[in-house]
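hey m, so remember when u said the tokens were messed up on ur end? i reran from scratch. heres the input so u can diff it against urs
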Amino acid sequence: MTPNKDLSPYHFMINLALEVSKQTPTSEQEENRRTLFNDIVTTATTTTIDKHLKMIEIDKSLLPLIIETNNIFFYRPLFFPCIFVNTDIPVLEDYTIKGIFTIDENVKETNYNNNWYIISFAINNKTNESTMINMELLSDNKEEEYVNYKGKEASTSPTKIQQIKNEIKNILCNIVDFVEHNKHDISQTIIKTSIDENNKKMSRGKLPMPTKIFIRPSKSFKKYVDDFNKKRESLGKLSYQFVVRGHFRHYQAEQFSSKTKQAPIWIKPFMKGEGIIISKPFVLKS
């Protein structure tokens, strides 16, 4: 079965996890992968899923600003022990990030660790190959194995995979900082679920769903978002402007109070210059 890339990221990953969990492993790597996906399937097919997972959905209008904002890779507690970003996110022109499953390792019952464990899939929009990427936020293990959905070695080059990893880390850090520290520019709508609702879903052969948190631009911020997106879409057309990437300003030095350290400031991306709009290449560094 080939995963349907038109599915929502959540259903894409769970369907794939179900497939992998049924395969007979022929190596230690495949056994570890099957165990990982068994854990995902167990979490996703219980009526108490809401105790284990929260789903984040990002309004598409915010994606360009999130993608064009730089961040620093350091541990910050997740707002819930396990979250899933249920939004298709375009990166590096030819790829789509199909969901980001993230576990805060510091809340495990054993082996406490100030880190995030991240599982995601990158789909090559030209070949439709789905490459699984699993990593920790604060590690850079270039010897990791990357596989396509059939468990075969991925054809994506190590350099491209490293770029995708950095994009995922950056986007995830931005989303967490937006949710935790940027109440002025975004609005959150929370759709809660219940065990009774999930029992009904499962009785109809559907997946139970966790509580969803919808992230949208606030009313006061929407004009900025619309103006930025219109200008960004004109990249490469007739003018002389370019995107200045945004970033989060973090205060981690010892002289800052704990309250200041917990309140990063978002410096928004913006367009600079006049005339023809041009594209300036930028590579995220780990």
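this time it looks ok to me. Confidence is low (pLDDT under 50) at residues 142-147. if urs says something different then somethings off w ur setup not the seq
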